[in-house]
Amino acid sequence: MSKPVLKIKELGFHWETKDPFMFCAFHQDQFPKGEANLGPPKEALKGRFLGNDFQKKDGWRMYHGQEVPGFPYHPHAGFETITLVEQGYADHSDSMGAKGRFGEGDAQWMTAGKGVLHSEMFPLLHRDQENPLLLFQIWLNLPRRSKKVEPHYKMLWHENIPIVEEQDENGKTIKVKVIAGKYKSEKALDPTPDSLAAEDNNDIQVWRITLEAGAEFTLPAGDAKSNRVLFFYEGEELKTEGFEIPEGHSLDLDASQELKLVNGTQKAELLLLQGKPINEPVVQQGPFVANSREEMSEIIGEYQRTHFGGWPWPKAEFTHGDRGRFALFADGTLVEKSQQELT
InterPro entries, per this entry (predicted)? Predict the structure, then answer.
């Protein structure tokens, strides 16, 4: 039998994943106090290449934003995104007429399908303290049969996302947050209707795992046909299978085998991605994913002709003022969550 650990890799800005995932973008920024426009002070923008600021000067980036950090409107087609905001907030707006603010543990699932425009801005809501952001955006591919489905956006509010809390033999705490799939008896909330994860047979698992210092955790064996990658992004050191793995590494794993992890002297944070491969050709060009060059040309042509319905909002980097967490869906349904006070 092969070893459960197949490969260990150092993490970069875009984490390498395996089919059916495309990659995972990891955003960790220590944003300063916000101004009335929900952006940083003007003096903090000096010396930055605004519009394409990825240098992490002073511990944070503006990304493609010029006034507010984030990603002004841009297109997607042929895949879906799972955006988990563990710290801070994201303001979403799209060409379907939907918008929302989510954060502090919420997740957004967006199936781009045949094409959608959206923006994701990071409003600096606090004016008397810093605004840290911790965000993961996972790109999950769609099979050929689903690449042209209608786009759909759904919120997974943190109050409803299942979290399994357990103790190891020494009483150390382990938490598993189930964003997709199932851990033990806890099943994740439903994704978007045409998502790859909507069919249990595809074995899409997205878990965020927290280990107390010194905790021992056994990752259970899964489906032998699935690809499994574990990302160790915060902590000190993990020991497993004779390896001593420092923070900032990923492990490609044999999903059919369990894996015992022994944590070091600091709390550890991990992200698990697992799923059965689609095993279809992948052609990616920026924000578009297709199965062939011909199909990619069709997507680009459609975007040039229609702009996927156009941008209905007044600004490219549109934000949502001083309101709390909420979601306004394309059908007019409004969901309001707890109010965030601006200070």
Answer: Pirin (IPR012093), Pirin_C_dom (IPR008778), Pirin_N_dom (IPR003829), RmlC-like_jellyroll (IPR014710), RmlC_Cupin_sf (IPR011051)
Q: Hey, what amino acid is at 302?
A: E
**Based on C-alpha coordinates, what's the Rg of the chain?**
20
Q: How far apart are CA 78 and CA 221, in angstroms?
A: 31
Contact 137, 83 (CB under 8 A): yes
Match 């047979």 to its residue by tokens: 201
Q: Return the pLDDT at 342.
A: 42
Q: Are strands 89-94 and 116-121 parallel, antiparallel or unpaired?
A: antiparallel
Beta strands 288-290 and 182-183: pairing type? Answer: unpaired
**C-alpha dihedral, 73 to 137 to 233 to 58, nearest 10°:** 10
User: In 3D, which of 130, 125, 120 has the Cα closest to residue 60?
Assistant: 130
Provide mean pLDDT across the span 205-212.
98
Domains of the chain with CATH codes: 5-278+312-332 (2.60.120.10)
Query: Can you give the three-state secondary structure of 38-97, one letter per residue?
Result: CCCCHHHHCCCCCCCECCCHHHCCCECCCCCCEEEEEEEECEEEEEEEEECEEEEEECCC
Mean pLDDT in the chain? Answer: 96
The pTM score is 0.96
The span from the CA of 4 to the CA of 241, in Å, is 8
pLDDT of residue 311: 98
